[in-house]
Amino acid sequence: MAAFKAKYPGGNEFNSPQLHQMISCERAKVMYKTIDQIHKEYDGQWVFMVNCVEDLYGSIAGGVVVLHSENRDVVIRAMEEYDYEPSITYFRYAGRIPEGVSIVL
């Protein structure tokens, strides 16, 4: 495993993959939200999530919101940064579909 090198707030530099993983896990615990929480907090916005968790039926139960906007195109353009994200990712509209809008599956 290659060493991970990153700068964290305060200018500290870490080279340990284990330390990076530990920090990432602690940060993810704070940022993880259930689908219900996401719908309440980001109502009327498009959201893109990483580190998603599926329930027993294969539906997304929650994840970490990394992008959100009322403008779908803004989120889609920014999603390019996550092309090689190793976790389960998910993109959806949080809230009720506005009247007069059609969804193509």
Question: What does this molecule look like?
Answer:
The protein has 105 residues and is an alpha+beta fold. It has a domain at 33-95. The protein is built from 3 helices and 6 strands. The chain has a 4-stranded antiparallel sheet. Strands 1-2 form a two-stranded antiparallel sheet. The protein is globular. The model is unreliable at 1-23 (pLDDT under 50).
Q: Which tags fit this structure?
A:
105 residues, 4-stranded antiparallel sheet, two-stranded antiparallel sheet, 30% strand, globular, disordered N terminus
Strand segment tally: 6
The SS-based structural class is: alpha+beta
Mean pLDDT over the full residue set:
76
Low-confidence stretches: 1-23
The helix content, as a percent range, equals 25-40%
Oligomer: single chain
Strand order of the largest sheet: 3-5-4-6
What gap, in angstroms, lies between the N and C termini?
40 Å
Shape, please? Answer: globular
- How much of the sequence lies in strands comes to 25-35%
Listing every helix as H and every strand as E from the N terminus to the C terminus, the arrangement reads EEHEHEEHE
How many DSSP helices? 3
Rg from alpha-carbon coordinates:
16 Å
Sheet having the most strands: 4 strands, antiparallel
